[in-house]
């Protein structure tokens, strides 16, 4: 098995076990079967062979596992933790004070729209990173790439069986940014309403995955592309805080997980 497939296998076996250990609320009957079924699929990829189509499937399958890892965390969500939520919010206020309110009030509308747009790019950012590496002409190991991304991202989703909080935008009253009437922000909210698990991941999975991708591209000896991806990942991290999609601690720890994932992947 490839390392990325092993990481996915461990995660999908972990979810049902964590739910029992954490004594989460009653979950739908299909959840355990689905999670263990995805684990079995991950384990079975090693028998696809080495033909070109089989290799292509294995090169991109971890991207599907990444999405499924996020969505499958939803039926395993643990109890809400208002105390931890308040702690994160108070930490934001100590670290940032009223700077975010001032920024949201005085920043040019075009800049705020651009940051909201940057937040959306977290979705195509991961496949774009691998695609660029594959098309760059240099030897690329997709397994190393996905190992970094999965090790960085899956701990963010794997904590949901133990606790979760609401995102800061849902708990802070009368945010100045909401009064700016941002078009892209309204689109972001509609997208999140339809595709998210409606819980704040701690750390931020968006930041963890995009940081890992940026560092993997930057380490491929292509300084211009590496710089572009690093700037993109930084913009996503900033937008995540300024848009109040995550607490500052979520973003900092997500970035650290991105570094950890890359270090682990390069140790293979």
Task: Give a written overview of the molecule.
By secondary structure, the chain is mostly helical. The chain has one domain. The chain is 72% helix and 0% strand. It has 13 helices and no strands. The longest helix has 21 residues, at 52-72. The chain starts with a helix and ends with a helix. 40% of the residues are buried.
What's the helical proportion of residues?
over 70%
Judged by helices, strands and strand pairing, the structural class is: mainly alpha
The termini sit apart by: 13 Å
Count of individual beta strands: 0
Q: Helix tally?
A: 13
- What's the oligomerization state? single chain
Poorly predicted runs of 5 or more residues: none
| Radius of gyration, taken over Cα atoms and rounded to an integer in Å | 19 Å
Overall pLDDT score: 92
Number of domains: 1
Biggest pleated-sheet summary: none
Give the ordered list of helices and strands. Answer: HHHHHHHHHHHHH
Shape: globular
What share of residues are in beta strands?
under 5%
Topology:
Layout: H1 3-22, H2 30-44, H3 52-72, H4 82-96, H5 99-106, H6 109-120, H7 122-135, H8 142-158, H9 168-171, H10 183-195, H11 205-218, H12 223-242, H13 248-266
Helix pairs in contact: 1-2, 1-3, 1-8, 2-3, 3-8, 6-10, 6-12, 7-11, 8-11, 8-13, 11-12, 11-13
């Amino acid at each position: 098995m490839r390392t990325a497939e092993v990481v996915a296998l461990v995660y999908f076996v972990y979810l049902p076990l964590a739910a029992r250990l954490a004594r989460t609320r009653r979950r739908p009957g299909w959840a355990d079967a689905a999670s263990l079924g995805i684990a079995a699929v991950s384990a079975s990829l090693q028998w696809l062979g080495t033909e070109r189509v089989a290799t292509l499937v294995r090169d991109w399958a971890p991207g599907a596992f990444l999405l499924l890892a996020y969505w499958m965390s939803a039926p395993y969500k643990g109890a809400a933790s208002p105390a931890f939520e308040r702690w994160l919010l108070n930490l934001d206020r100590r670290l940032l004070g009223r700077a975010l309110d001032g920024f949201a009030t005085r920043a040019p509308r075009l800049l705020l729209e651009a940051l909201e747009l940057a937040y959306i790019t977290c979705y195509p950012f991961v496949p774009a990173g691998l695609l660029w590496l594959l098309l760059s002409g240099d030897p690329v190991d997709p397994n190393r790439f996905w190992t970094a991304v999965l090790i960085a991202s899956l701990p963010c989703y794997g904590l949901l069986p133990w606790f979760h909080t609401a995102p800061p935008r849902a708990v802070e009253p009368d945010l100045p940014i909401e009064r700016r009437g941002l078009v892209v922000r309204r689109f972001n909210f509609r997208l999140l309403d339809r595709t998210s698990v409606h819980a704040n991941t701690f750390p931020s999975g968006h930041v963890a995955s995009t940081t890992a991708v940026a560092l993997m591209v930057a380490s491929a000896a292509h300084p211009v592309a590496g710089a572009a991806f690093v700037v993109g990942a930084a913009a996503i991290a900033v937008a995540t805080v300024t848009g109040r999609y995550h607490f500052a601690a979520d973003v900092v720890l997500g970035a650290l997980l991105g570094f950890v994932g890359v270090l682990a992947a390069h140790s293979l």
